[in-house]
């Protein structure tokens, strides 16, 4: 460690207080000292003095004043991240202790994308709630990019999502669990009409598409499919990951179509509203993966939960695990 780094660490340990982190969190929200002063119920000169104190502790300028408000410097961005993560960890620790105080064994926050089989979520919840005493569980649904952002912000302990090609940094690990076979899902009443002839992506592009939101692994995959067929990706009539929303659109729009994992589509087909077109798609969706922040990888509850999810995935088509893997996982459990 350099002399400057050593001196900075000593200053932080001796002078940095939680109110300083709260100030930085408020600045990140509002970007003007006047609004920060209103939120913290202090005078603007007092807020200005506190900011100077924080910058003195970190021995560098953290913000530039611009016409758009306070803009974080490169050092300021790092310190803001440090402040937000530290405060999030404190909130998480308080919630875990509160759960333990009520007789539970702790708290787990798990994220999941809507378009994975219920069997994986059921396996996770059955395992966590089957413990004695039980574990308090928070479940957050979202797109993979939303879940990855929540993991970075320390708002989740783990997540089940799609393999994420964008850089997620060294802070998060992702482990592929299994591949899902895609299929074309349409209104049941339109299946016969929409399945005439061979699969033609130019003809399919003329239908009313339901796409995942932008910047999701599935949306990028769907766009690539059309482009590889020499067809411009269509503009969707609805962008959603919600299965209830997809089912609603397919119920009301006779030309609606979407691509879903076959095992997930089967759950909607049972309701009689939707049907799968009889075309074999020659590619797989981005693998379903288990995401864990590196600081949680060795956490006993998360490690056991990961093994439970892997075991549940063994019964699903596309699981990459062999019988040897199954035996090894069973031993660990």
Keywords:
single chain; 333 residues; alpha/beta; Arc Repressor Mutant, subunit A; D-Maltodextrin-Binding Protein, domain 2; 3 domains; 5-stranded mixed beta sheet; 14 helices; 12 strands; 48% helix
Q: What features would you describe in this structure?
A:
The protein is α/β, with parallel strands linked by helices and 333 residues long. The chain has three domains: 3-80, Winged helix-like DNA-binding domain superfamily/Winged helix DNA-binding domain (Arc Repressor Mutant, subunit A), CATH 1.10.10.10; 103-179 and 287-332, D-Maltodextrin-Binding Protein, domain 2 (3-Layer(aba) Sandwich), CATH 3.40.190.10; 182-276, D-Maltodextrin-Binding Protein, domain 2 (3-Layer(aba) Sandwich). Helices cover 48% and strands 18% of the residues. The protein is built from 14 helices and twelve strands. The chain has helices at 3-15, 18-30, 33-40, 44-58, 74-101, 118-129, 144-152, 191-194, 201-204, 217-228, 243-252, 262-269, 300-313, 323-332; strands at residues 63-66, 69-72, 107-112, 136-141, 158-162, 172-178, 182-187, 208-211, 238-239, 256-261, 274-276, 288-293. The strands form three sheets. A five-stranded mixed beta sheet has the order 4-3-5-12-6, with helices on both faces. Strands 9-8-10-7-11 form a five-stranded mixed beta sheet. It has a two-stranded antiparallel sheet with strand order 1-2. A hairpin with a 2-residue loop joins β1 (63-66) and β2 (69-72). α2 packs across α3 (33-40) and α6 packs antiparallel against α13 (300-313). Residues 321-333 have low confidence and may be disordered.
């Amino acid at each position: 460690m350099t002399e400057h780094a050593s001196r900075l660490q000593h200053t932080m340990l001796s002078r940095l207080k939680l109110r300083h982190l709260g100030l930085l969190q408020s600045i990140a929200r509002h970007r003007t000292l006047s609004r920060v002063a209103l939120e913290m119920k202090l005078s603007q000169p007092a807020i200005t003095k506190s900011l100077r104190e924080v910058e003195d502790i970190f021995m560098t300028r953290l913000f530039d004043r611009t016409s758009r408000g306070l803009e974080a410097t490169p050092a300021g961005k790092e310190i803001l991240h440090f402040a937000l993560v530290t405060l999030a960890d404190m909130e998480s620790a308080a919630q875990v202790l509160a759960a333990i105080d009520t007789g539970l064994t702790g708290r787990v926050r798990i994220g999941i994308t809507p378009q994975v089989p219920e069997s994986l979520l059921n396996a996770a919840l059955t395992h966590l709630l089957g413990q004695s005493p039980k574990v308090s569980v928070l479940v957050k649904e979202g797109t993979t990019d939303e879940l990855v952002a929540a993991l970075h912000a320390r708002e989740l302990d783990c997540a089940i999502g799609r393999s994420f090609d964008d850089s997620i940094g060294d802070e998060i690990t992702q482990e592929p669990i299994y591949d899902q076979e895609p299929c074309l899902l349409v209104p049941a009443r339109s299946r016969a009409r929409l399945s005439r002839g061979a699969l033609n992506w130019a003809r399919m592009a003329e239908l009313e598409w339901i796409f995942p939101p932008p910047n999701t692994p599935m949306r990028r995959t769907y766009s690539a499919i059309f482009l590889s067929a020499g067809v411009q990706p269509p503009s969707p009539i609805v962008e959603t990951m919600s299965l209830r929303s997809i089912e609603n659109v397919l119920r009301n729009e006779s030309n609606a179509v979407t691509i879903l994992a076959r095992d997930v589509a089967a759950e909607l087909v049972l309701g009689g509203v939707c049907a799968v077109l009889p075309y074999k798609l020659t590619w797989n969706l981005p693998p379903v993966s288990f995401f864990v922040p590196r600081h949680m990888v060795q956490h006993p509850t998360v490690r056991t939960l990961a093994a439970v999810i892997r075991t549940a995935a063994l019964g699903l088509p596309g699981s990459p695990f062999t019988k040897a893997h199954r035996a090894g996982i069973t031993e660990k459990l």
